[in-house]
Amino acid sequence: MKKGEIMRRKLKWKIAALAASLIVGWFARSVEAKAFVVEESITNNIIPKPMSYKAGVGKFVLNKETKIYVKGGNDEETEELLRIADMLKSKISAPTGFNLNVFKGSSTENNTINLETTDGEETKNNEEYRLISNNQNIKITAYTPEGIYRGIQTLLQMMPSDIAKNSLANGVEWSVPAAEINDKPQYSYRGFMIDVARHFFSVDEIKRQIDHASQYKINRLHLHLSDDQGWRLEIKKYPDLTLIGGSTEVGGGKGGYYTQEQFKNIVKYAADRYIEIIPEFDMPGHTNAALASLGFLNPDGKRKPLYTGIEVGFSSLMTNSEKTYEFIDNVFKEVSAISPSKYLHIGGDEALSTPKNDYDYFVGRVSKIAQKYGKTPIGWDPIDTAPEINSSTILQNWQDSNEVARKKNMMMNISIAGKAYLDMKYNKDTPYGLDWAGYIPVETAYKWDPTDYAPQNLVLGIESPLWTENVATGEQMDYMIYPRLLGYAEIGWTPKSERNWEEYAIRLRAQGARLANEGINFYRDPSIFK
Length: 530
What we know:
This protein has helices at 5-19, 75-96, 145-158, 203-214, 240-243, 260-272, 288-293, 322-338, 356-372, 442-446, 474-481, 484-493, 501-517, and strands at residues 52-61, 67-71, 101-104, 112-117, 129-133, 137-142, 175-183, 189-195, 220-224, 276-280, 343-345, 376-380, 394-397, 413-415, 459-466. With 530 residues, it is α/β, with parallel strands linked by helices. The strands form 2 sheets. Strands 10-9-8-15-14-13-12-11 form an 8-stranded parallel beta sheet. β11 (343-345), α9 (356-372) and β12 (376-380) form a beta-alpha-beta unit.
């Protein structure tokens, strides 16, 4: 925005005033960077940016005598808030050494943190919350415990970055600036995806990513559980799917799989952090692991060889065989029994070896099998070309295209677009990842919006996928996910009109210490983390 001399002087004064309360060096650009408006919200460095933030006077200082009170709208909500409060207590305990007491009820005493659900209209957002902090106490109110949990993530970001440490931090004043925050998300679906088929990741590795993502109000984790290289979930009717199909991975490693009990454990762990696990079984293409496990899925009745490369498009289920649909029905039946998600992802991308008419028939029929078990099907673009696919199925758009509304705007859409791929390299020197969608530096990852590809009324939300053809370890996974996931979280939470790259870059730089304190091997973009 073009500014006059008076505006420039005001801007310089405002920056100078803020510098006294900010850590020196919290600038995302060099001195030559273009001028930008510094907002009050920068002082708290919260990501995603709250809907409204009003700075108060003073601060709340946490100490070993601080008490946490919880009060739900009913006994069930109170018990849920107790669980959330225990998680907050645990998070605070490690770096501070404080063993805070948790009580039922509400309190107007000084030195308290109050977590309380209030009656609200049915139209209120489950994730909406209000946080008020002052010299005496902190109060977070919401219409549901889920909203309280989102508010706690904001509260933790308002505290010194050492709160993210897992060991005692000495000499820190554990203060929270006085403020009033009213907040809720733009989109109800804010997710990321981990491909555990190309390379397998353990239960603990998945839980670790759930912990990190939930801090930034991510609420969906899509697990890509089958592909040409691996089948990763136990199906008791077909044990060879994991015994054979789960026995390897890209490059010929040992692979692995989740038992149904392990999967339920992941689902419960995620649900406690208000993240919904969405299982995916890709089909009719990307199915060689299944074809290698079960001979009856092949025209000649023989198992295919296992595959450990990274090519796509060569495999296909038999779309005209009743054995195929019986198999899918049995898989979906078992998965639906252990997956409480309303969604079941049926894949549908890159089916290059499936004739178009057969493909359309297949995805239409498979979507109905998912619905038979009470699930809303999700499928990759281009499943919407099938005549049987309608508004009861969610389209996941993964191409830089505005042709999402091919079926007369009948389908809700989860946008990915080329700019949201976590497995794309940051630049030519990135040691992991691919570049078929181009390089995606941190700035590029932030500067787009789902409405670039679909009307807002058709957008269910945003998802950023991590494909793992050459991402094989937790350390490599960290590097590709962070810090880009923070930007994607903000795109999903904060309205486009409230987002600005220059302002965001300052908040992102401040998050660097938190990421480091948590042991996240994030990409230190030299233009941001100086």
